[in-house]
Amino acid sequence: MLRILHQIFRTGVVTEPLPEQVEAEVIMVGKRLEEAIRKRFSRSLVIREVDAGSCNGCELEIIAMNNPIYNCERFGISFTASPRFADMLLVTGPVSHNMEIALKRTYDATPDPKLVVAVGDCGINGGIFGESYASRGGVGSVIPVDAVIPGCPPAPADLLAGILAVVTAGNQ
Amino acid sequence: MNNLSEQIAARFGADALRETGHFPDTVPLLSIPRDGFEDAAILMKKAGARLAAQWGVDETTMGRGFAVIACYAWESDYLLVRCETPRDDPTFPSLTKKYIPAFRFERQIESLMGLVPTGHVHSDHRPWIKFEDWPADAWPLRKLFDPAQKMPRVKGEYRWARARGEGVYEIPVGPVHAGIIEPGHFRFQAMGEDILNLEERLGYTHKGIEKRFEALSWKDGVRLAGRVSGDSTVAHALCYCRALEALCRFEPPPRALWLRAVLLERERIANHLGDIGAVANDAAFAFLLYQFSRLKETLLRLNRRLFGHRYLMDRVVPGGVAVDLAPEGTEAILAELDWLADEFERLITIYDLNPSLEDRVRTTGILSADLARDLGTVGFVARASGQPLDCRVQTPFPPYDRFPPSMTVLNSCDVHARVWIRVCEIRDSIRLIREFLATLPHGEISAELPSPSSCASGFAVVEGWRGEIVYWLQAGGEGGVNRCMIRDPSSVNWLGLEQAVLGNIVPDFPLCNKSFNQSYSGHDL
Ligand code: SF4
């Protein structure tokens, strides 16, 4: 136990502030995100992540967004296990033929109003997997999409910026 | 001639034909008559070989019919045994009676290539990867199949294994899981808290990858290989490149080989770090998750700074690597490793001395050594269950031949063993990277690959962080891609998970699953 406490004190708060430019961006984006989430989602934006056929690369970055360095929870973002509690679906991958029905069901199970964000080059248009017998291509060809976040995979900072864009867009 | 191929030659004599266009020479491709296909398996089984992979190939555009290839391996020996199967009778003798993993391989061959295994013990002709709502005659890997078509859905139902009796109940999970992970379906039969049976149903992330290769150039193929399983992008791209380089009989410049190995070990460290933390988290010890993910993130950031991509996608290319390492970069990596080694050991002490964690990970999710062998498992899953398998040690390519990894094999076969193997491997990968950087050769980082000759084929194995990855590439009559076969370690290791959870309690499933952490995308292709 002492070792654990010692390690915790040694590590300190790694979340911020950090010198690099990316970090500065994360903080800036985060602050605005926090504000928008406070106003529009009564302080918490609940996301259901759906892998609709990705290579798992996009998932790695969405998981990284939750690590103590990006710590997206401090901006009011949390991930839920059930679509029924979600404000937003974060969907990755080309939508595979075999996931199409499950994705539609998840969409239907998410209460209105809901936001859908297609993540990664694959989520936008199928990426390198394209459209084929096994792939429907982008998320937009299966359910309505409000915004996209390009990248292969998009880095955690890009994900935060993308979520900010969609959360504030509805304001205008 | 190696030991396995000698045995086939002794048994089949002139009936075993060595294919001349297949490379490398150390891995022969022998064609035998179709009715001897199972006999060959019996022989290989006696020799102690495992069935590493089995796949179908459509050679109809090359003036032949279909063929089935079985890949056997025993220590450093790899052998491909091929039998032809004509267009009007596309069947082949099943190997399932001899090798358990064959039933999955064969379901896949039947589902995607339309070649039917005969003499099957279980007669398990349920589709695999292909879903029951696909048209029965949709065989995407056949040349006549148009990959651009939008497949209609038909009516069909998957027949699950069922258990009946008082108090027995069923828990279906997925395909959309609770966490931020890939989709797949698990069906448990349970009684009280005990798991009686687990049946996996995978294929949800099937993106038609193998077929897609056939529409790409050899050069572009590597980008796709790097996206078979995003967490193993280096290992998959490397295995693709090595198979292609074997096919073209080409060896990249030494500096490229060394840099590839640095990237491969960095990928191993990053994934192992993440997984050790995640296993601890599933045992409700979130502290270690945050600590390990902090270390992993540091590694990813340095990847981005030095190599231009956090996960190193598209850095390994046919003929070499796409990015060089400046002397400052070497310094940065060495400094990072010093820091990492120190932080890592502190955390491992905490892991090791925590009784409540120990209680959860020890004797949980046991995959016995016999099962690990019989199921053909590979990688850290196999090594945690007493199987001494590591391609970096058994079939090393430079620089691993000069700096052999030290292979850790454990016999407790439980969640802890699968974690501890990774602990040892992180330490060893740190040592290896230091050695590689100390001896990094000067010179070019890539060279132009010659064009593949028509109908040639190439084979490679690479030890990714999950274990042995297998690629087999075949050029068509015009020199383009006729077939790209991929066997991710997950294809065999998923079988291990089904067995490891039996008799465990349902709440321990996430822990067991995490300790395997197999790829859905790499399996589903
Ligand atoms: S965008 Fe890139 S990382 Fe994301 S699923 Fe597609 S290939 Fe993988």
CATH topology (level 3) name of chain A? Rossmann fold
First-residue to last-residue Cα separation of chain B: 33 Å
The strand order across the widest sheet of chain B is 1-3-6-5-4
Just give the CATH class of the largest domain in chain B: Mainly Alpha
Assess the beta-strand content of chain A as a share of residues: 5-15%
**In terms of per-residue confidence, which ranges of chain A show pLDDT below 50 for 5 or more consecutive residues?**
none
Total tally of structural domains of chain A = 1
What is the CATH topology of the largest domain in chain B?
A: Cytochrome-c3 Hydrogenase, chain B
Distance linking N and C termini of chain A: 51 Å
Largest Cβ-defined interface:
A-B, 50 and 57 residues
Number of strands of chain A: 5
Could you tell me the strand content of chain B as a percent range?
15-25%
Instruction: Tell me the major beta sheet of chain A.
Output: 5 strands, parallel
Shape of chain A: globular
Structural class of chain B: alpha+beta
Low-confidence stretches of chain B are none
Q: Helix- and strand-based class of chain A?
A: alpha/beta
Task: Spell the H/E element sequence of chain A.
Answer: HHEHEEHEHEH
Query: Number of helical segments of chain A?
Result: 6
The helical percent of chain B reads: 25-40%
The name of the CATH architecture of chain A is 3-Layer(aba) Sandwich
Give an overview of the whole structure.
The complex is a heterodimer of chains A (about 170) and B (about 525). Chain A has one domain: Rossmann fold (3-Layer(aba) Sandwich), CATH 3.40.50.12280. In chain A, about 40% of the residues lie in helices and about 15% in strands. Chain A has 6 helices and 5 strands. Chain B has about 525 residues and is α+β, with helices and mostly antiparallel strands. Chain B has 2 domains: about 5-120, 2-Layer Sandwich (Beta Polymerase, domain 2), CATH 3.30.460; about 210-490, Cytochrome-c3 Hydrogenase, chain B (Orthogonal Bundle). Chain B has a 5-stranded mixed beta sheet. The longest helix of chain B has 29 residues, at about 255-280. Chain B is globular, with a radius of gyration of 23 Å. Chains A and B meet through α1, β1 and α3 of A and α4, α8, α9 and α17 of B. Iron/sulfur cluster binds next to α3 and α5 of chain A.
